[in-house]
Each structure stands twice: as structure tokens, then as C-alpha cells.
From TrEMBL:
This is 16S rRNA (Cytosine967-C5)-methyltransferase. One of its GO terms (biological process) is RNA methylation. Belongs to the class I-like SAM-binding methyltransferase superfamily. RsmB/NOP family. PANTHER family: NOP2 YEAST -RELATED NOL1/NOP2/FMU SUN DOMAIN-CONTAINING, RIBOSOMAL RNA SMALL SUBUNIT METHYLTRANSFERASE B-RELATED. Residues 210-486 form the SAM-dependent MTase RsmB/NOP-type domain. The active site is at residue 424. Residues 1-26 are annotated as: Disordered. May act as RNA methyltransferase. The keyword Endoplasmic reticulum does not apply. It comes from the Bacteria.
Length: 487
């Protein structure tokens, strides 16, 4: 599907008029609007801007947990379904969406989400959203918002999507893009990837399951860092009804909706943390990969920011008496890595360095991980706005850096040592193609079957590399290739 209309950054043009009545103040809806404007105006990420807005709002004693939960649902729900809502809004207006002022379009989108994806009564959704419009816009745009929302309220979501999506038989990718609110190019890339990894099931059903999983609210998953915390400790510290063990990682605990990781002492003390199970599996697989000859004493995380995998690797290394060097090119991310590793009992160091111009000698490490920068298409559940922000050219722009980091990682590994190339994307141009290109013409590196390092995880494909999927594994779509340096 085509990308949703770009929201103009400026406020509504023209002189503001005093509303004919004072609108009711709704802190949750106003907060959600402010978050959407930050995403549109400053290219902010919702998972970064929303917590700051919530912390500020919670200083008001009248702002409740229910308000916070509602505001969170409005922000993430609206961003996830923005493509579908834009198609519906376009059918209800007499002008192109890019001719509608950005703040106005955001208010309408918030109202559309309430009407089409929540149990809020129609009259309440319309009335409260129009009141929001009177607060943040002016009376003229508020009347326009009211008229559009009343048109939207005439049908439910399924009926609208039947009307605005092209038939599947005529354009399958556009059809699925409209139904599941993904840009057409992303649908195409995901379909190509599924065709490689799950060719026996790469049809409409699999694509619908994957796109639906991208739109589902992700679970909060905790990691009990080995030697510092245990799954049993985390479960015991919470109501048993509020937790479930991880599906695949021996270090994972899944938190029930509404659970707050900050309530856990182990999290506050940095002995445990929040980490997607897919990221845990990447670190666990690298640690489980067999070495040939030599010691197992020096580990490197060459792209360590913001520090989740580095913290788990440091804990696993400490159990073996190994040391971890965590390197991150960006100073502010290196500080996050240092914070994540605080208190680790084993030897470790955090440095700010460019992995493509290494600050270490060649063949210095037994195990090396490079979780390279990428498009982030594997984490659309967590960063729903990324699907509208990314372009196909971004994938190509990351390619030189990804290849450079992998080459440097191989050079940093001793003979018999292991390299892990990971990325949070299922796009073939960021995953298997990168590894194949780097290994082309080299006879000093071989693939390791990564599936053997995660025997408990099903549906990993034919190997030797692995691809995790949100609809199959309940994780982000992490990719991992394991390579052994031969000489």
C-alpha cells in the first residue's frame, strides 16, 4: 500500500478563534495527541517519547493508571493502524490527505481508533475527540473533525476495510497492506523472506498471521541474568498469575499485561532486565556454539548499544571465567551499555569505538557478536511508526556498514573461534545476502548450523542460519548466522 500521508509539522494555519464552549479536559487523549505530534514533528519514537510524557502526567494526582493505559493504547494503536485509518479517512473527505493539516489528521486518527478498535461508545468517542480538537486546534477544524468522525462511525472496521482495500485477487500485496496497515514494500519484502524460510507455508494465511502479529501488543519479557538472578526469583517476586516462563529461552519470564518490571528488586538492582526473548536467544546461541582449540576467555560485542545482549553475554561469560569487551560507536549508546553492565561480577570493559575501524588487534577474541544496525523491520510490534518512516532505500543504505562490521568481526576472531551476525530484520538484503556476500571468495570461514545451538526452538528453517518470527515464535524477527573462523 502507499505510505500514509505525511503529517505537516506546523500547527493549524490561521488565527485561532475562541471555542463557543469550554471543552472538557481529557488528559489521556491530550497526552496521546502530544505523543503523536512528537512522532510526526521530531521523528521521535513512541517508545521513547511516551514514557517521558507519562512520567510528567503522573505527577498530577488526578492522572490515574487507567489514564496511562488508555493513552498508551491510543498512541500505539493509532500508529500501528495508521495506514488502514488513512485509507478510511481518505474515503470520508473531499481532499487529498496531504492537504489536511497534520495536527487535524492526528486528531481524526485518534478518533478513528476509538471508533473502530475499542469498545468506547460511538457518541463518547466522537464527543471526546471533538472536545480534544477544540482544545488543540480551533473551532473550524473541530467541526471538520466532527463531520469526518460521524462518517467513519457509520461502519465497523471490517466493513470499511472491505470497501477501501483492493480485491486480493487483483493486488494481493496492496490488499494485505491495507487490511493490516503495512506499506506495500514491507509486505513484499516480508513475503519474499517467508518464501525462503518457510516455503511450504508461504501463502496468504502465513502472511496474514505475520502481519497480524506485527500489529499485536508485544509481551513484556524479562531476562534473569545468569549468576545474578534466576527465573525462579523473578516468578517468586511476582504473583504467579502475573508471569509465565519463556517459551524458548531458559532465562526468560513473560510478564502479564499491566505488570511493571520496575516493581522487581532484581530489575532495580540490574540483576535482571527487560529483553525480548529473540534477543536472549541470539546471545544464548553464540554462547552455546562449539569452539575449536584454544581458550574460551575473550568475548566481544562489537555493536553493543543499548546493552541488552551485552549484559546477557557478560553474565554468561562471567560464569565461564571469560571477559567481555563491549564496543559501541555512539557515545550516548555506550553510556547505556555501561549502565546495563553495572554490577556484573565478571571482568568486562565498555569502550566507544567504531567496529569497522577496530580498536583491538586481529584474531583477539574467541567469540564475537555483531548485532548490526538495520531497518528494524523485525521489531514493528515495538516501534510501529518505523513502518511508515522507513523506505526501501534505507535497506540499501545500511548495506555497506553491515558488510563492514561483519568483515571486521571475522578479522577479530581467532582461528577456531565463532562469529555471530545478528540483526532485527527478516529482510533478505539485511540477513542472508549480507553473509553470503561477505563470505564470497573466502575460504577461511565456514557456516555453523545455528539450529543446533537452539535445539528447543522449532520452525527455524533449513539452516544453517536461523530466522525468528513473531507469528511463529512470539519474538521479534531476529536473524542469526554463526560462522567459524578456520585460520
Amino acid at each position: 500500500m502507499s505510505t500514509p500521508a505525511q503529517r505537516p509539522a506546523g500547527a493549524n494555519a490561521g488565527a485561532k478563534k475562541r471555542p463557543y464552549r469550554k471543552p472538557a479536559q481529557d488528559p489521556a487523549r491530550r497526552l496521546a495527541f502530544d505523543a503523536l505530534r512528537a512522532v510526526d514533528e521530531r521523528d521521535a519514537y513512541a517508545n521513547l517519547v511516551l514514557p517521558a510524557l507519562l512520567r510528567k502526567a503522573e505527577q498530577d494526582v488526578n492522572f490515574t493508571r487507567r489514564d496511562a493505559a488508555f493513552a498508551t493504547e491510543l498512541v500505539y494503536g493509532t500508529l500501528r493502524m495508521r495506514g488502514s485509518y488513512d485509507a478510511i479517512i481518505a474515503a470520508c473527505v473531499d481532499r487529498p490527505l496531504n492537504k489536511i493539516d497534520g495536527p487535524v489528521l492526528d486528531v481524526i486518527s485518534l478518533g478513528a481508533h476509538q471508533l473502530l478498535a475499542t469498545r468506547i461508545p460511538t457518541h463518547a468517542a466522537v464527543s471526546a475527540t471533538v472536545d480534544l480538537a477544540r482544545t488543540v486546534l480551533t473551532e473550524g477544524p473541530a467541526k471538520f473533525v466532527n463531520a469526518v468522525l460521524r462518517k467513519i462511525s457509520q461502519h465497523d472496521l471490517d466493513t470499511w476495510l472491505e470497501q477501501v482495500a483492493p480485491p486480493y485477487e487483483e493486488d494481493a500485496e496492496e490488499h494485505l497492506g491495507v487490511l493490516f496497515s503495512h506499506p506495500r514494500w514491507v509486505v513484499s519484502a516480508l513475503w519474499d523472506a517467508i518464501g525462503v524460510w518457510q516455503p511450504q507455508a508461504a501463502g496468504r494465511t502465513a502472511m496474514e498471521a505475520l502481519l497480524a502479529a506485527d500489529n499485536a501488543r508485544p509481551e513484556v519479557t524479562l531476562v534473569a541474568r545468569p549468576g545474578r538472578s534466576t527465573v525462579e526469583e523473578l516468578v517468586a517476586a511476582l504473583d504467579e498469575d502475573a508471569t509465565e516462563p519463556g517459551r524458548w529461552s531458559p532465562y526468560a519470564v513473560r510478564l502479564a499485561e499491566g505488570g511493571d518490571p520496575a516493581d522487581l528488586r532484581a530489575v532495580r538492582e540490574n540483576r535482571a532486565g527487560v529483553q525480548d526473548e529473540g534477543s536472549q536467544l541470539v546471545a544464548a546461541a553464540l554462547a552455546a556454539a562449539p569452539l575449536e582449540g584454544g581458550a574460551d576467555a575473550r568475548w566481544l560485542d562489537g555493536c553493543a548499544g543499548p546493552g541488552g545482549k551485552a549484559a546477557l553475554l557478560a553474565a554468561l561469560a562471567a560464569e565461564r571465567g571469560a571477559a567481555l569487551l563491549a564496543s559501541e560507536a555512539q557515545p550516548h549508546r555506550a553510556r547505556l551499555v555501561a549502565r546495563a553492565l553495572e554490577g556484573n561480577p565478571g571482568p568486562y570493559a565498555v569502550i566507544t569505538a567504531d567496529g569497522t575501524r577496530p580498536a583491538w588487534r586481529p584474531a583477539s577474541f574467541d567469540r564475537v557478536l555483531v548485532d548490526v544496525p538495520c531497518s528494524g523491520l523485525g521489531a514493528l510490534r515495538r516501534r510501529p511508526e518505523a513502518r511508515w518512516r522507513r523506505r526501501p532505500a534505507d535497506v540499501a543504505n545500511f548495506a555497506p556498514l553491515q558488510r563492514g562490521l561483519l568483515r571486521s568481526a571475522i578479522d577479530a576472531t581467532r582461528p577456531g573461534g565463532v562469529v555471530g551476525y545478528a540483526t532485527c530484520s527478516p529482510h533478505l538484503a539485511e540477513t542472508r545476502v549480507v553473509v553470503q556476500d561477505v563470505l564470497k571468495g573466502r575460504d577461511d570461514v565456514e557456516w555453523i548450523d545455528a539450529r543446533a545451538c537452539l535445539p528447543q526452538v522449532p520452525d527455524l528453517g533449513d539452516g544453517p542460519d536461523i530466522q525468528l518470527w513473531p507469528h511463529l515464535h512470539g519474538t521479534d524477527a531476529m536473524y542469526l548466522a554463526l560462522l567459524r573462523k578456520l585460520r
